[in-house]
Amino acid sequence: LELVPDDTYHGVNQLIQTLLEWAGREGIPPVDRAAALCEVGRLYEEQLDDLVSAQRAYGEAIALEPDYGPALTSLRALAIARGEWRDAAALMDRALELIDDPVEQARLLVENAAILRDHLGAPDAALEALERAIELDPDNMQAVQWLAGSSFARQDWGPARDLLQRLVDGNAELKDPHEYHYRLAVACEHEGQADKAFAYYVKSFNRAPMNLPTLNRLAEMCFDRGQWENALRIIDAIVNSFADEKEPQELAELYVKLGLCELHLAQRDVAARRLKGMVVPTGAASEVVDLAWYDAAEPWAAVSLDPQLLPDVDLPVITRVVRA
């Protein structure tokens, strides 16, 4: 049917009538009649913006051929557009029965999960749909991301860790990836995997160096692990950039740790020089790199306010320690 530009409405209606007449003829297979009615619905929807008539045509197609996929898909999309969420969810279940492709099934389940959670007040059913989606398509990162967030919020640390691991290691396109590395680190900590947690806090830090939750955990872990240089830099960043966000007690504890870190490093320098002087003859060059002397000096420097070391700590360092 050729249409002239100023007669589109008449031409579309003429085409609709032709399709309806053809679909009503005797002897036409039901699937072909359903296809014609589905085309009628598409014309009503896309050309005439008549959603009520479109919905009726799609419904008639399904009445003729209940498993006619295109009509189910169109009717579901129309129900979503009209905000008829229960109908959309019911049609989604019917569409799932007709699809053999697990990837497409997973996609529809994720779509249905959003309807269940956001419009039908059924968060548990939404989670069940997401779990089914991941079983069908383990690479559906949208489902993995959603379930990871839900598990983390519920403090269900084992599943949260496993799901977050898949996200950060699966090259998923993530907004704010540092947040996912941070959450994975938290879940690992709760699962007793301190070393793994530390590694993911570092990865979070590398992606967002001034993210306060990450800085808080790294400051504590570096201090507890005796990584004095790292602890000093991180705590210094916190007290200089986030003091207004800290309670007085928290801030006081940070300043104590800041002073202890600086004092330890200063005592370690003194201890390293003392040990080197004991071993290396005066005027001779040491065959051991400086880092080895620092490692050897660590146990001695760990004695806070050591009377043998403290007098040789530089006055500016002592001043900063006392100020902290």
Strand-and-helix sequence, N→C?
HHHHHHHHHHHHHHHH
Helices, by number, come to: 16
- The secondary structure category is mainly alpha
Helix-residue proportion: over 70%
Shape: rod-shaped
Rg from alpha-carbon coordinates: 34 Å
The portion of residues forming beta strands comes to under 5%
Describe the biggest sheet?
Answer: none
Folded structure, characterized:
The structure is a single chain. This protein is mainly alpha-helical and 324 residues long. 74% of the residues lie in helices and 0% in strands. Helix 7 (123-136) crosses helix 8, helix 8 runs antiparallel to helix 9 (157-169) and helix 12 packs antiparallel against helix 13. Residues 1-6 have low confidence and may be disordered.
Secondary structure layout:
Layout: H1 8-23, H2 30-46, H3 51-64, H4 69-81, H5 85-98, H6 102-118, H7 123-136, H8 141-153, H9 157-169, H10 177-190, H11 194-207, H12 212-224, H13 228-241, H14 248-279, H15 290-301, H16 315-323
Helix pairs in contact: 1-2, 2-3, 3-4, 4-5, 5-6, 6-7, 7-8, 8-9, 9-10, 10-11, 11-12, 12-13, 13-14, 14-15, 14-16
